[in-house]
Structures are given as structure tokens and as C-alpha cells.
Input
Amino acid sequence: MVSVGGNLYSVPDCTRRRVVEVHTFASEIHILERDKLLAVHPVLDGRGQRRIASGHRTAPPPANSSTTREAPRSPAAAAAVATRPLAFYDAVGRRLAGQGGRP
Output
């Protein structure tokens, strides 16, 4: 588990006791190891909560566990970016630079 803002977020079992990098965004936590995305979690509200993503634990949860396990989510899906033609970015750049376009 990785502690972020007083909450615990899971990483795969094979990541135990290794250094990871955490990127905190407004709605998501990204956990990386050597630039490889290991886990993406939604930010938990408050403190003292735990989130375990499905597939991060090989053993079943203990009978007294109240921590829910989430369905697996593809890390690649979180990194998806819309594809646009370069002309779009050229137009945005020109507009920001005041070289034309509508106000």
C-alpha cells in the first residue's frame, strides 16, 4: 500500500518494499515505478481510507476485512489522449499569440 494524503492505495503484490513515484491529480492518483504506470486510483475523500484494486492482491481478503476491492482498470486507458491534427494546435497557438482568429 502507498500512503497519500492520509489514505492508503494499493499497488501490485510484486511491488512490496520498493520505491515508487506518486503523481497526485485533482481526481486521480497515479503510482509509477521506473516510469511504468503501476496503478491508477480515484482520490479518496477524507483520511484513514483504503482502496485495493482488483488484481493487486493474490490472496483472498481476510474474513474480517471491510476494505472493498475494485474491478481492474487498465492503466493505458487512463493515459489515453485525444488525437487532433497539427493544424488544430497551430490555430490555437496563433490565437493565443494574437495573430488571428476570432476573439
Notes: The chain is about 15% helix and 30% strand. The mean pLDDT is 81. Residues 86-96 form the longest helix (11 residues).
